[in-house]
Amino acid sequence: MSFLSPKRLTKISKYLSYHLRHHPEALDLELAPGGWVEVQALLKAARKQGFTISPQELEIVVAQNDKKRFAFDPSHTHIRANQGHSVPIDLQLEPQTPPAVLYHGTSEGAVAAILSHGLQKQSRHHVHLSVSLEPARQVGQRRGRPRVFQVDTAAMIQDHHTFYCTDNHVWLVDSVPPQYLILVV
Ligand code: HQG
Of 23, 106, 129, 183, which is best to mutate to test ligand 1, by the most ligand atoms within 8 angstroms of its C-beta? Predict the structure, then answer.
């Protein structure tokens, strides 16, 4: 099997996001350091809950997911969400130097608060930033009229802020104070 319908891909992806990022306990799973769970344990727990995913389907979802949200370890015995967690886990990422600017997409309604207080991580582990404007615009339009901030990451690095990059090329930072932000869209 190498093809899944877009509907099935999305359904499995949402199921995995829910459990691997936010509610592993709903499947009686614990995330190991790095956010990893055993593939066999995940599939077994899902089946028990009435949501059967075949190992082949899981391989396809990891490979074809539109945002590369999930990853296997090299042996494909463990899986994790690359980012976006709300449960407390250490993703075991090394600090990295980002490009001189990054982008953050948000909704129109959040702009005033962001300009006063900066970008805060809310319920997730980090603030999410992208390397180009278009993905940020797409993130912003999930919640209404999109707005995009450009982040002066070069200045933030000079001021000793720490950045991480996930396997799917999302940049993460604890917060972005307002002085580093310019509204560009
Ligand atoms: C906003 C999805 C008021 C922030 C997406 C965002 C992304 C503030 C929201 C990924 C604020 C948090 C992450 C402040 C930040 N006052 N609002 N001071 N600071 N905000 O979902 O970045 O499909 O936690 O702008 O596509 O929207 O799940 O973060 O609007 O890639 O893989 O508070 O999640 O990817 O929302 O989205 P989120 P996000 P997935």
Answer: 106
